[in-house]
Amino acid sequence: MNELRLVLSELVVERVGFGIFVLDRELNVVMWNRFMQDHSGKTAEQVIGKSIFASFPELPRVWLTRKVESVFQLGSFAFSSWEQRPYLFKFDHDRPITGGVDFMQQDCTFMPLTRERDVVAVCVTISDATHASMMQRARDEAVAKLQEYADRDGLTGIANRRYFELRLADEFARWHRYGGELSLLLFDIDHFKRINDEHGHLVGDTVLRVMAGRVAQTVRVQDVFGRFGGEEFALLLPCTGFDDAMFVAEKVRRAICETPIDVHGTRVTVSASFGGTQARKDATSSYEALINEADAALYSAKRQGRNRSVGFV
């Protein structure tokens, strides 16, 4: 009966669908199952009795040595997920190459093998987690896409008001804590209702998209450009003082108005009015106050004849 158990045990070890190998204290290979042979291309005869690093010099020597030694010292299981370390061995996988992974993603378990309470060897199992990793990556990408869509204005593709105000709140809190400079511009398209009335809403939508594209190409990567609603837009300018912010306002205004927008043969002349302000320690109590100041400057620009930039004073 004992001989039968031994035969069955060896058969199971050879036929299981995951890798099993055993290391002694010097990290010499003591056992090597069929899974490891099939995926590594090295037979048991080639690796048993040798250091694992002699057969696989590309293995992470420091990490693996520390992992195995901790099992010898503590006598407890250790585990490594593909999320922590994608793989231990560079095994090929059988998933589509479009999955975005080069090698089999692996979960590794390190199990102490004891005799009379002493750890005499460590059994390492390698589980193929490629499918799970690809599914997780697909879910993460889908969630990221949904989040991106939630943060973007559907018409222009720039930040929507909710996301813009979140970034404004963050930047304001950072400015309030560490100091520096922070400016905000609000602007809208002059007589936009007239554009919709004379040319139709499809032309108006195109005007907004083209205008947003021109502005996005004009501002810096670190600036935040968002749609506040309708034809009103906002520019958050971190690390930017008032004079520089008003220079940006003029630069953006010219980018908008210098070239008419051609929509299916219809040339639409567009201009914009800007209001700008800067956060000030002695006067700006909240990011909402910053919005109110920029809004007041914007209406001042409209009262002065539109198509101009006015700063809050």
UniProtKB/TrEMBL annotation:
This enzyme's EC code(s): 2.7.7.65
GO terms under biological process: cell adhesion involved in single-species biofilm formation; negative regulation of bacterial-type flagellum-dependent cell motility; regulation of DNA-templated transcription
InterPro entries found in the cross-reference section: Diguanylate_Cyclase, GGDEF_dom, Nucleotide_cyclase, PAS, PAS-like_dom_sf, PAS_fold, Rev_trsase/Diguanyl_cyclase
Reaction catalysis annotation: 2 GTP = 3',3'-c-di-GMP + 2 diphosphate
Gene Ontology annotations for the cellular component aspect, listed alphabetically: plasma membrane
Any Pfam family: GGDEF
Segments forming domain GGDEF: 180-313
Protein name from the UniProt record: diguanylate cyclase
Source organism per UniProt: Caballeronia humi
Organism lineage: Bacteria, Pseudomonadati, Pseudomonadota, Betaproteobacteria, Burkholderiales
